[in-house]
Amino acid sequence: MLLGKIVRSNSHVDYVCQVYASGEAEQPPVPTDYAFGTFVRIELNTQPLSWLAGLVYDTVLLNPDFGNLGPRLSPQAELAVFSPDYLQEKATLIGITSIGTLTENGQATQGVPSLAALTDAPVEKMSDDQIKTFHRGNPSVKLAYVPLLISQGSPLTLHLLRGIIARLETLFPEHAAPLAVLQRELLWQSQISPFGGTR
Fold this sequence. Notes:
With about 200 residues, this protein is α+β, with helices and mostly antiparallel strands. It has a domain at about 1-140. It contains 5 helices and 7 strands, in the order E-E-E-E-H-E-E-E-H-H-H-H. The chain has helices at about 80, 130-135, 145-150, 155-170, 175-190, and strands spanning about 1-10, 15-20, 40-45, 50-60, 90-105, 110, 120-125. Strands 1-2-5-4-3-7 form a 6-stranded antiparallel β-barrel. It is globular, with a radius of gyration of 20 Å.
């Protein structure tokens, strides 16, 4: 499912995507499509085709009209009729951290990608099969990007990782036991870290 397009980057692995609104896509996404912890892919300008694999880690709402108490020439409902060229400036932006790459033939690499996305690159929600391909290791589930997420120092990282593990437990039931151990460790850290505790 197409979610939006890249509008800027904050670093080599940190991107901002503008979510498509009504009229900008045939089937505009709904909030559950780009929820916190959603796996996405960003198209790269390569041959053969490849993508950055990423995770939604933040949401920002833009509303330039907030706090604007001045008179309006036209009510909001009449702008489409009287001012068809009026630009809708309200937008939903999502922060995406890239955690690796996927190729057209199913090869996955986890960690800091060598390539960066371009402005206006399309962003899609990853399917369950794509998520499984990205995490399939030998013999267990591969999570080589975890140190990359932890190194970013966000207070939401542990919550993000717990959501990832929960999702992988449903996609890889045969590896539920080791994932459950990791989940318990992350739960312990999320409870202790606010107090500055370490093991």
